Amino acid sequence: MKLEGFNSSKTPNGLLAVKPNKDALIVNIGDLFQAWSNNLYKSVEHKVMANPNVERFSVAYFLCPSYESMIKSCKQPSLYTNFTFAEYRVKVQEDARLFGRKSAYLGFYHHNYSYINIYKSNKCIIV
After folding, report:
1. pLDDT in tens, 30-61
2. What residue numbers bound the domain in which 49 lies?
3. Is residue 21 part of a domain?
4. Helix/strand/coil percent split, the chain, to 5
């Protein structure tokens, strides 16, 4: 049975519904994998809209490195500065407190990029 309800951010206008495919497996790539892959793979905002009339099973598996682990891109030149998992966690918590959502990986781009007004329009403005 195909269940609808998974949404992923593919457009600047908001979340895009992902059509069910019985031959596919959906794997969400996290922020750290985006940095490791030097943006080859992207972390995306996503959510599941549950249908109360249909039973659904989901499996979540999270893998987190030690706090001392250095996060750096496999490919050079890197789009990101090197950072530790501890630095990433602090930035995620700071963003959640200030803005109500995370955007921590943006804080580790090279060339001192900064980001502003991210949450007013759901768009990232890099200056």
Report:
1. 888 888 998 888 887 777 777 888 887 777 77
2. 6-126
3. yes
4. 25, 20, 60
